[in-house]
Write a structure and sequence with these properties.
The protein has 2 helices and 13 strands, in the order H-E-E-E-E-E-E-H-E-E-E-E-E-E-E. It is an alpha+beta fold. The protein starts with a helix and ends in a 28-residue tail after the last strand.
């Protein structure tokens, strides 16, 4: 019969492993970003900021109107934000009224940095906010939070850019998006440190999946930090 120490030791080892994993995760996140682009921290509140805060939204600019949403017809692309840097997008909020089946996978979110024609982010809207298969579900994580049964989507991924940043949404479905609400918060900086890199996000799907197949997420030979969601 095992004694008490032998029973407790594996449990303690497992717990220590989880603690080490979390420490390594947060250490990697902190080390990968310069101080000015680290996600919100209460201890940073007393510090003087070196940037100015700005926002872009879907609000109606005509006085007397309360229609704060945009409409996107099938095949059309809405430019949500067209920003001039250097800067960092630090928050994106989106909520949508659409009645097409699995519409979160039919609206495509794209982000273009520094005047590039190829998007650095090219993901279905639902998947970008952490929920796949065209579903709407609540999600609570450090970089992405979805609430109100998945209808209110928030991304807190820091998205730095040095020259410009254009964010678009394209309706790839067969029905119009009747109400598209959004809010983009960003910071204007005088300059970004040399060690601050860009945020990239791509959606890959293979159907039917090939047994034992390999998916290439990137062909770049440059260094990158990967955060994958399956």
């Amino acid at each position: 019969m095992k004694n008490l120490n032998e029973i407790r030791r594996p449990a303690l080892a497992d717990r220590s492993g989880w603690i080490c994993a979390w420490i390594m995760l947060f250490a990697a996140i902190a080390a990968a970003q310069a101080p000015d682009v680290v996600p919100f921290n209460l201890f940073d509140l007393p510090r003087m900021k070196t940037f100015s805060a700005h926002s872009v939204s879907s609000d109606e600019r005509f006085v007397g109107s309360n229609d704060d949403s945009k409409r996107i017809r099938p095949g059309e692309t809405l430019v949500m934000a067209d920003l001039r840097g250097p800067g960092v997008v630090n928050h994106i909020w989106i909520t949508v009224a659409d009645n097409e089946y699995a519409w979160p996978r039919l609206v495509r979110l794209r982000v273009y940095y520094d005047g590039k024609k190829t998007p650095s982010v090219d993901v279905p809207l639902g998947d970008f906010f952490g929920v796949g298969h065209g579903y709407e579900r609540d999600l609570d994580s450090l970089p992405v939070r979805d609430s109100s049964f998945g209808r209110a989507r928030n991304s807190y991924w820091p998205m730095p850019f040095r020259q410009s940043c254009k964010i678009t949404a394209t309706d790839e479905g067969n029905r119009p998006v009747i109400a598209f609400y959004y809010h983009v918060d960003w910071q204007k900086h005088a300059a970004l440190n040399d060690d601050v890199d860009y945020f990239h996000g791509y959606y890959r799907q293979e159907r039917p999946a090939v047994r034992g197949g390999i998916t290439n997420f990137s062909t770049s030979e440059e260094r990158a930090t990967m955060w994958a969601q399956c």
